[in-house]
Amino acid sequence: MENGLPTPHSDLPISEATVRKAQNDHTLDEALQLTGFGKVQLILSVLSGVSMMTVVNEAVGISIILPVAQCDLSLSPWEKGILGGSMLLGIMVSSYFWGYLADTRGRQRILKYALFGTSFFGATSCLATGFVSLFFLRLLTGVCVAAPASTVYAYLGEFTTPSRRSQMLSFASVWGGVGIVYVSLVGWWILSYDWVLTISDSFEFKPWRLLFIINTMPGFLNGIAFCFCPESPKFLVSQGRNEEALEILKKVYKLNKGTDSTDGYEVTSLRLDPEDAIAREQSENGSGGLLKSMVQPIVKLPYVVYFIICCVHNIGAFTIYGGLGLWFPDIINHMFSANAKVEGNKVCNILEQNGTQAIGMELCNDESETFSYTLISGVMSVVQGIAVSLVLGKIDVKIMTMFNFTVAGICGVTLQFVTNPYAVAILFCLMIVFAGHCVVLVNANVVALFNTKVRAMTIGLTNVFGRLSGFAASSLLGNMMLVNCELTLIMLSLLMFTCSISAILLPSKR
């Protein structure tokens, strides 16, 4: 020992500068921990939540618009299903592409451009004159909204320490419920009018067209807000841009601590977390081209098992949330229509009693109960999101995932025996809300399980499978409920229970 400094592996003394350097060299998670938790995380959680709200606005909004627009656009039930799922199809084909761009070009840059694109095509949807034009506009909306649908989880998660990551992602997801409330209220308001602006002999601008523009406004404002947000420091470090990342962390420290000085911030240099360092080394030394570098980290054990399970979970969640959720307003319309209000009728009896006319029957308007129960499902989603956020720090994400899928499955089974229309509507709400929140929990699992270099791509790829199932379900569930409603509900419930049981194989993460 010399100058009070131990030299366990050498007779040479260790200089004070060397010790100081070792003490001040931090991983990003350590550096984030030292910035504290405060204003920055809360603001970014709200902005990320509004991005999730943008996705919900586009997905749920179309389900409210289609029953009203079907007469003007001469839409068949099959075409309504395709249109409802067209956005999911757009998300499916572009999710992995956006994930790759987010992992190589930056989270913040991709988010702001994609949000502006979503707003443009979402608003332009009001100009559609038929099935084909509306399909392509909704498809392009889905292509753009795929980025905030997945990348935002990586962005917010990388500004948050591991101990709070799942909790903050769950808190941000509350805004998805706010989105459902938003589209329900503005839909109820706008569609209560019956004015018509005649633009030409073949085109009339009606309230349902205005609804496309109003639904997409939060996304446009969110894009403007992201222009002023910093890039993810974890992304910058993974790209070797450590100095830029350190400057961002210093700003985070000042905002969280409410000070103009960074003298109390101990971090002077950054290093990669061990998993990210290994991933970068493999990427630099690997061979086989772009595709191999993108896929190789995912297909190794045990990550390939986790990846498959997350895909199964997204398939289950989107089948209910994106598929059954699309038909929810239509089902409620017919549950509360005049000829369905017969005591003792089960939901399946009501949907099957008129055969192919049940869901496909052209009501050309939404019953008031449609808005009421869509609004209730939004409020339920907000309450559940807040409750889950409060307990996630104490309960494993895996346990919450199992609980949500199990509740959704139980609701599906119970629906076959309940005759009260109000109870049926509540059970549908619960099934959609609990399955829908699993989308957030799955993405939280991906953020926790996969390293920075492939995180956004993995979220995107799992969402490909989820959106594919959502598109298939939105296209098929309407007719399946008509042909054999009971069997359809049993199949959906079994899918929920399968997802719940498979979650046992995931590692525990809080």
TrEMBL record:
Pfam families in the cross-refs: MFS_1
Localization per Swiss-Prot or TrEMBL: Membrane
UniProt keywords, alphabetically: Membrane, Transmembrane, Transmembrane helix, Transport
Principal subcellular localization: membrane
GO molecular function, one term: transmembrane transporter activity
Residue ranges of every copy of the Major facilitator superfamily (MFS) profile domain listed in the record: 37-510
InterPro entries in UniProt: MFS (IPR011701), MFS_dom (IPR020846), MFS_trans_sf (IPR036259)
Cross-referenced PROSITE patterns: MFS
SUPFAM superfamilies: MFS general substrate transporter
Membrane topology term: Multi-pass membrane protein
UniProt superkingdom: Eukaryota
Entry-linked Gene3D superfamilies: MFS general substrate transporter like domains
Record-level GO cellular component terms: membrane
PANTHER family, A to Z: MAJOR FACILITATOR SUPERFAMILY (MFS) PROFILE DOMAIN-CONTAINING PROTEIN-RELATED (PTHR23511:SF37), SYNAPTIC VESICLE GLYCOPROTEIN 2 (PTHR23511)
Record-given protein name: Major facilitator superfamily (MFS) profile domain-containing protein
Taxonomic source organism: Anopheles arabiensis
